[in-house]
Structures are given as structure tokens and as C-alpha cells.
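Protein modeling request. Please complete all fields; requests missing the sequence field cannot be processed.
Requester role: graduate student
Desired output: 3D structure, C-alpha cell encoding
Chains: 1
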Amino acid sequence: MSASGGTKAIVAALAANLAIAASKFVAFLFSGSSSMLAEAVHSLADSGNQGLLLLGGKRAQREATPQHPFGYGRERYIYAFLVSIVLFSVGGMFALYEGYEKIKHPHPIEAWYWPVGVLVFAIIAESFSFRTAIKESNELRGKKSWKDFVRHAKAPELPVVLLEDFGALIGLVLALGGVGLALLTGDGVWDGIGTLCIGVLLIVIALVLAAETKSLLLGESAGVEEVKKIEEAIVDGETVTRLIHMRTLHLGPEELLVAAKIAVAHDESATQVARAIDAAEERIRAAVPIARVIYLEPDIYSEQRAAADA
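Delivered output (310 residues):
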């Protein structure tokens, strides 16, 4: 996976979640807290999700084949979509079920120091993981808001890890609140309510991830800045006189397809047009390096035909 795939953030999140999941399962066994069980399953699901992201990044590096001539870059989108499904089903739905059962059949929390200690440890570990994801994301985010970054990022791994870590931190606070209220009041129902809140939070995050990765799977165009750079690079004002129309499509996070119809002077020879197209392709790749698949169709400009093509 390329550096922009956020491998460091994924590995940091994987290590943190494995350690946290083990500690939460131990705390559940000693305390019987449903919030602890829901959080343990959540961390275990997150660990599996990071494994899926790493697997998707590895499979996306395969060479193109006759059956898949544009390569396997979209594998990363597929595995990110699977992450949203796992988070929704294994994380969110399980937490809702466990919370309902705890409210229906409440019981007091035993050995309170286990869940409280583990939750504090988990918050610290998740904070380090979240910090790593933020640091890696800032290198790509630029001046974009966090909302725009998650919404428009073409590489799915960092938004996934960011939302997972953010959800994990909020979930840990909810679990700590549920356990704390259950201990203060002596009523185990609060533990179940905290578990329900965790379930709702995970489902909301899963739905957001599913919507974003679905858009990537369907095929998104280049960003506004990249489109502008490509448009400026195509026209040289000599042989290529104007851009008639253009389409772009992400074949993967770091691979862009560019297809355009360009206007050339009517008195140019075939050799001159071919050289102009080669030069335009070089300018495009220099302006936007991820534009790796480029198809330029020369034509004589006509306002009526251009309107019809648009």
C-alpha cells in the first residue's frame, strides 16, 4: 500500500485494538458488565476491520490482467465497504442486543475496579491510535475541514480509521458512564443503557462509512483542483486549441483515468496531431501524477457538436 493509504495509522489501530479487546474480555469475565462485553466485541471487530484494510491494500497492488485491464485499485474500496458492514453487524447490532438483554435482565456489576481500570487504559490506548490517524491525515487534508476530508478522500483507509477511532473513544466514554452510573445507583439498567448508546453510535458510523465507500465503488471523478490542473495542461494554444469535453474516473485511490475530446487546427497533419496528443499527455501527467490512463480524441471544434456532446 502506498504511504497515502495510511498503513502506519492502520497498524497502530490494529495493535491498540487487539490489546484493548483482550483487556475488555478479561474485565467482562470478572465483572459481568454488558458494556464491557459490547466494547470487547467492538474492539475485536475493529481489529478485524484493520486486517481487512491491510488485506485490501495488499490485493490492490496486483498487476493488471486481460480480464481486469485497469488493475485492482478498487479492491481497497471493496474492503473498506466490508468494514462498514462488519462494524454495523458485529459491532452495532450486537451492542443493541446485549444492551436490550441487560435492561431486561439487569444485574449488579461485580469487581468494579476491573471495568473501570480497563476503560481508562483503553481510552489512553485509543487516544494514541487516534493521534496517529490524525497526524497521517493532516499530511493529506491540507486546508480541508475534517468533514470535507472524510467526504471527499479518494483513499478510504484513513477516513475509516479516523471514524473508527473517534467512535471507539466516544464508545469508551459511554461505557464508562454506564458502568459509573450502575455502580453509583446499584442499578444494572444503566450499564444496559450505556451499551445501547454504544450500539447506536456504531451503527451511525457504519452507515456513514457505507455511504462514502459506496460512492467510491460507483466511481468518483477527480477532485476540483485536479480537474482544473488537467484542463489547463491539455491546451497548448497551438495545436490543441481548446478542450471540448472531458471525463475523469478514479480507478483506485492513486490511479486516475482521463478521457477527453480536444480541438485541433483543421490544417494540421496526422503526425502533428499525434505529437500534440503525446505532448498533452506528458503535460497532464506532470500536472497530476496519478493520471496514469489517458485517452485523448482529436476533433475539429463545432459549437453545435460540442453542445450535443455535453
